[in-house]
Amino acid sequence: MTERKIFCNFAVEKQNAGKKIRMKVKKFGGTSVGSAERIRNVGKLIAGCRKDIVVLSAMSGTTNSLLEISGAVEKGDRKRASELIETLQAKYSDTIAGLYQTEKYKAKATKTIDGIFNELRALTDKDFSVALEKEIVAKGEIMSTNLMNLHLHELGINSVLIPALEIVRIDMHGEPDEAFISKEAKKALDAMADADLYITQGFICRNEKGEIDNLQRGGSDYTASLLGALLGADEIEIWTDIDGMHNNDPRFVEGTTPVHNLHFEEAAELAYFGAKILHPTCILPAREHNVPVRLLNTMDPSAEGTLIENRLEKNAIKAVAAKDNITAIKIKSGRMLLAYGFLKKVFEIFEKYETSIDMITTSEVGVSLTIDNEKNLPRIEAELSQLGTVTIDRDMVIVCVVGDLEWTNKGFEAAALEALRNVPVRMISYGGSNYNISFLIRKEDKVKALRLLSYHLF
Fold it and tell me: Least packed by Cβ within 10 Å: which of 4, 13, 153, 303?
């Protein structure tokens, strides 16, 4: 029995005791497939796990290169686009040379990748459009999945490539067409029932017009969540280069540890307020279909990681996260006292300029709120000034404490406040969610606040 089979069986016994495993969806990000060595590592991780669906991002750096190529096309600089393509193709030639052991598969991979680069060159001869850019960017995931599929074939594994462009579609509103995805994905799996593994692309899809498009938010994680939820997977695994969500930001706080279990709502709060390992909306399909999501580390496959599910650990604080580049806006008006419709007018201004609000607190004479996008702030400020006196504070940070923060629980909010007793707090938001309490502080106090919360809470 191979090392990977032992690991798979151990994980099955540990995570699903008494439950028959049918299929998992495993997503690997760009860093996890960022070189020949890392592609081989992923190959080892998935080789012993049969009937799973493997979702891959583009190799790290590829999407940025493709966007740069697209930018050159937009500027009409065909020479620059050609140079960028040559550079990127050389990188893939080096990857092929280091990945495959036999001349046969080196030749197969070279032929496949060269064909994709020829398609890319043909695209750069066209007039620029947003649709063209999406078609160019999609080549990244198409190349990484072809490399992986051929690598598995060289290992003797009967894997098949299921193009995401055939099974994933978004509607006219940019939302996943779940009925289409469910139908087409099941049809593709049934047609290839004899395969050991199924490989597909994350992020890319087609839109209602049949054009190449993408899922935008959450990217490949969203693809994995959709497929896992709609196909009834036992678990969705998101493999990155860190061992799950930590209880604080390891860039600023020493001694952080992975959080072993999170409720979906807790994970969404952490993702929204700064935990970059997940996009806050990408696990929504998994939550709605009650499919657990596990965050794992390709660099340390034996690490337990973080399990996200619809189960709440009672009376526990799980983690702290911070969201930067926040702007606080206070609208103060003596006319607000018992003024019917005042808040409605405030919210309508932000809706008009398509600007979302993070935090909000109110009193009899004023309202304070925060935004993370200043694009339309001058116009927003001008209209808010008609309602009262407007004060704006920039370079703020939202620090949130996440866990079981049901209001009937005693002491948690007090512990967080006590931790920040020497940090100036501009706003506090509590009660809007059962899973977090948020503090608005100055940018220069962020690291101090994160460290104090870790010391007092963990």
Answer: 13
